[in-house]
Every structure is written in C-alpha cells, then in structure tokens.
Amino acid sequence: MPKAQETVLEIDLKALKHNFQYLKSKLQPSTKFLAVVKAFGYGSDACKIAKYLETLHVDYFAVAYINEGIALRKAGIKTPILVLHPQAVNFKALIENCLEPSLYNAKILKEFITATSIENQKNYPVHIKFNTGLNRLGFWHNDINFINKTLSLTKTITVKSIFSHLAASEDLNEKPFTTNQIKDFKTIAKNFEKTVGYKPMLHICNTSGILNYPEAHLDMVRSGIGLYGFGNSEIENKNLKPIASLKTIISQIHLIEKGESVGYNRAYKSDGLQKTATLPIGHADGIGRQYGNGKGYVIIKGQKAPIVGNVCMDMIMVNITDIDCKEGDEVILFDANTTAEDLAETANTISYEVITAVSQRIKRTFIE
Ligand SMILES: *Cc1c(COP(=O)(O)O)cnc(C)c1O
C-alpha cells in the first residue's frame, strides 16, 4: 500500500470478504445473511461495501434511515433493503425506492398502511419488530391480536419477516437474559404464525448473537460490526480482520522548551525539552476531545505517540520526543494491528463509536 499523503480511511475489501466468509461459516447453509450497512457502512462507505457484498451474494441489507437506503439504490444496489428506523414523513420515498420498513408500533403501522394505500400498493413487504427486552423499539407480545386485526383490514402490506434485537448478546454474564429473549421471540413467532395464518422469516441475531447463540440463527442473521472486523471478544477479534485503517501524516514538528505549553487553553505544559508533531486530524474528523491530554495515542514508525493537550477541530498534537520521524511521515490512528478497539479503550468507548465517527470529509480509499 502506498504511504498516506493526507488523512485517509483505507478500506480493505479482502478483509471484508474474509469476515463475511467467516461469519457465514457459522451458519447453516439455509440461513440468510443480512449485512447491516447503516451509518455509512459503520463509517466505511455503505455504497462500496454493499456493492462488494452484493458480488458475494449477500441476501439482504439493513440501514437505519430511509435516506441511507435511497443512497444505496442510487448506487445501483438491487438486493432487498430493510430500513430499521424509518420516519413516516419519508414513506413515499421509501416506497418509490423499494425499501422495506421495520414497523414497531401501532402508530407507524397505521401510518405505513395509509402511505401504501395512497401509493396503490399491494402486498408491500414489511418487517414487524417485537420488543423482547431491549426496550428500545418493538411491539409487545400481547400486540399480536391488534396487528392481526389491522392486517386483516388491508391488502396493501404483507409481513415478510418478524424480528427482535438482543440486548446483551456479547456479554456472556447475561446469558440467562439473552436465552430468555430468544425463548420469548420463538413463542411470539409461534403465536404470530397461528394468529395471522402464515409464516414470515424470523431473525434475532446481531454479530455477537451469531457467534454466541447458534440456536438462535433462525431464518436470517443481521451482522454489522463483525463484517467490519470486530467480534466483541478477544477470541473472535482474532478470527476477524478490521477492514478500516485511519492514517494521516505529520504536518509540522516543533521543539518545545521546558515550561512552554501546547495547544488551546495551554492544557499541556512541557516539563523538559520535547518534540511534538502536529497532525491534520481533529474532533471534526472523529477524534473526539475525550482522546486529548494523554489518553489517546497514534502510531508513528511503530511507536506510540500520545496526544498532548486538547484535541482541536482539525488538528491534534502528539508527543514524538523519543521517535525518529520527520515532517511528511505516515501516522496511524488505527489499523489491523493497533485497532479502533484499542483506541476506543483509551477513552472508555467501543469500536462501533470510533469507526462510525470518522468524518465524511476524510477520503476513503479501497484495497481490492
Ligand atoms: C445495528 C443493528 C444490528 C447490527 O449489530 P452488530 O452488533 O453491529 O452486528 C443488528 N440489528 C439491529 C436491529 C441493529 O440496530
């Protein structure tokens, strides 16, 4: 790979393929694979990721919002797209783009039926979400009769799947809770089938669900973070490959005398002669202020250089006193060795937040 000449997020599609195949290897051949590409494909570039996964015959995509689904359609994606958290104001656009909504309460179910009637739809595919303990979005078990009544009054929609979401699939201390969510969902599915009279697809597993609860793979699984190379455990992190590397370069090097300060509010004060490097990446690029003042670090020539002082909007300064480097040299924020999860841990957050925070102004490059 050529050295970075500006701040770039490098996406390794070979690693994406590896992760997809690894996760698929955990499934029965008949279990469908839904790739979650919300939030710009977890920061990677949803269209590129989706295009590539389409060549690998992924079965489904999911995004959070309707606009994200429209972007995929504009990029030529033909695979079905589930919209996890649609807003009624955009239903016309959802229908025009053949996106499939998750419907999670009475209000949105009725609003969608109204929209499909106005648009003269018949049997439009929808996905009904049930709450089994996350208490975020979803109908409750005892809403099945209401759903059935509502469905029996319209021919505009058809339920393609029913699904739920696990609250703590990565946390094996919560195994009893998760097992109970799975059990509840299976009961909901049975009652739904009995009441409504047909059998939609069933799905409940996210990435950690795939890895930790094989009995819950059902008809389809929904994987996000695993595709991007994180398994939420030391063992699974070894089986997966982070696909994104965030790199930049050294803009300027300073020699700082004892007692001088670095950056805004003079948050860092040098206790001796030190060398700092200024880098073109800041909190507007996704390196939040929580990484400042010695918490986060970057890698230069294989060595750790801690962030000194406050993170600026477009820049950070790092301590390179003991590193033999020069202006223009490459700097690594995270890659497959020093991962986004390592960076996340310095500021008490998770890989999900680090990779989705990478600003859209940073150029994405791809390794095929
Ligand atoms: C984001 C999301 C996923 C993907 O979760 P990962 O832990 O990234 O695999 C799956 N299902 C729903 C409903 C989600 O919101």
From TrEMBL:
It catalyses: L-alanine = D-alanine. Keywords: Isomerase, Pyridoxal phosphate. Its cofactor is pyridoxal 5'-phosphate. It is an enzyme of class 5 (isomerase). The modification N6-(pyridoxal phosphate)lysine is found at K38. Pathway: Amino-acid biosynthesis; D-alanine biosynthesis; D-alanine from L-alanine: step 1/1. SMART domains: Ala_racemase_C (SM01005). Its EC number is 5.1.1.1. InterPro entries: Ala_racemase, Ala_racemase/Decarboxylase_C, Ala_racemase_C, Ala_racemase_N, PLP-binding_barrel. The keyword Nucleotide-binding does not apply. Transmembrane segments: none annotated. NCBIfam families: alr (TIGR00492). Catalyzes the interconversion of L-alanine and D-alanine. May also act on other amino acids. Belongs to the alanine racemase family. This is Alanine racemase. It comes from Algibacter aquimarinus.
